[in-house]
Amino acid sequence: MTFWWSLACTAAAVAAVLAVTFAVASRLGRHSVIDVAWGLGFCAVAAVGAGVSAGHGDAARRWTVLAMTLAWGLRLAAHIAHRARGGGEDPRYEDLLSKAPGSRNLYALRKVYLPQGVVLWFVSLPIQVAMFQNGAPGIALYAGVVVWAIGLAFEAIGDFQLSRFAAAPANKGRVMDRGLWRYTRHPNYFGDALVWWGLFLTTCDEWTGPLTVLSPVAMTLLLAKGTGKPLLETRMARTRPGYADYAARTSGFIPLPPQPKRQ
């Protein structure tokens, strides 16, 4: 019964985070603020889940999963906030909100906040299940930590390399094809997917864990086929000369050796 109560509490936590985000975004006139709240929403779910599950799940697993989620979510939120400082509305949201038949804020609430809230809560199910598992940590938990760490490293290093590249005036308008970006056009998205497969694996020492497999599947599809990679690549192809050549020789998601440059 406590588990079902926890699901309701985490849903309320997601709603609270997004409600505050919506209020801030409406005041600023910039709904891309929700990108910062994305990682924070998962942190809220993990914290609430850990609190409600106290005295129920295995302590080692609960604290491990909480630490993993907080490390990933807080780093991502800080990175996006730093990247967006002083900027205007993200072109993705500007394009979407330009179609609003009436109030842009209400349209954003329906088209951005509600869907992201549902996805956030669904993707976080492995975290929520892990909090209530009673078995001692086993090989799946350890494997999950390793996969998560590799994913976090890919995401963080990819973001750092891109930030340094973009900060150099000489690179203005150029395509980033160095470091991890030589092997995949989206090391940060690939790393993000691994993070969620790692969190999923932490639950797989017990039979309840595999039941949440659709959560990492959904996140991976969103990153590779949904609102992540396709939207970004469409914009890059439109605004970055040479992107087509880069895309032709560089893997779209899974890191692979680059193809030779066209002559």
UniProtKB/TrEMBL annotation:
Membrane spanning residue stretches: 33-52, 112-133, 139-157
Keywords in alphabetical order: Membrane, Transmembrane, Transmembrane helix
Gene3D superfamilies (UniProt xref): 1.20.120.1630
UniProt xrefs under InterPro entries: UstE-like
Domain of life: Bacteria
A GO cellular component entry from the record: membrane
Protein's recorded name: Steroid 5-alpha reductase family enzyme
